[in-house]
Every structure is written in structure tokens, then in C-alpha cells.
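Could you help me review a protein record that somebody else here produced? What it holds is a sequence and that sequence's fold in C-alpha cell form. I need someone to confirm that the C-alpha cell line plausibly describes how this chain folds. Take the sequence as given and treat only the C-alpha cells as open to question. This is what I was given:
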Amino acid sequence: MSVLTELLNPASNGLFIHSVVDMALQHPELLDELWEYGISSDPSAWKAFWIMDKIHEVRPDLIQPYLKPMLENVERMKQSGQKRHMLKLLSLNPLPDEPSVSFINYCFDRIMCRTEPAAIRVHAMQMLYNITLDIPDFKNELRVVIEDAMVEGTPGIICRGQKLLKYL
């Protein structure tokens, strides 16, 4: 087991996360290892994307090479933390490729799924809004889905929904 995966295992309680972020900032070659761990089925795999999110706050350029693989892999992620951080990172950056119909449908499904955590739904909303800036074909559908999500939504969903509806 490597130093990174040792620090990310379930027994480590998050106190080491900042150490891992600092380590990865000093040694960007470790990002490949973070990526591989992040897409694994390990119960703590989501922490790798949490760390990538923290790295993005300081050095977004280091995360750029992983955006295309995120776009290609997010649909198969099982853990909500994996989905949350991948969608967040994708929504904060220009997409490296035109999104597939499958990805667009995936985002719509995340918004409409009432059992999905609010953060995933909010990031999916933002992602689809970002896509409509280049592909306006489904603006009306997005508007309807956001309005529906807001009916029983959390304060976060309602707030983001109101913000995005202003621009749609």
C-alpha cells in the first residue's frame, strides 16, 4: 500500500487530508495514483476526489488532465462522494469534449432523483446549465426539471435553482 492510500484508508479520520493535499501539490506525479484510487471501489475512494477538489482550489491546472477521464467515468461511479466531487470539478471547468447524450441524460437523472444527495443534484444542475451555454437545445427542459426539483428541494437546491432559472 502506498503512502497516499495508507493516509486515505478508512482508519484515517481526515486529519491527514491536508497532508495528502500538500504532498500532491509538491509531487504532482502522485495525482495519477490519486486518480486510480479515486475510481476504485474502495469505500474511501471518494477521498481521492476530495483531495483533487482541494488541489483544484490552489492549482486548477493540475486537475485539467483528469477532466476528460472524469467526464468519461462519472456515470459508473457508485459512491455519492465520487459523483459529488467529479460533478463539482467538471462544473467548475470548461468541458474537455462535447458531452455525450448519455452524460447529459445522467445529469438530468441526478437532478430528478429525489434520493440523490443535494450536492450531487446541485452540481448536476450547474453542469447542465453550463452545457446549455454552448448547446441551448434543452434549455426549456432544464428549466422544467429545475422547477420540479425545487418543489421539494433542500435550501441548496432551491437557492441554486433560483439562481440558474434567472439565467435560463
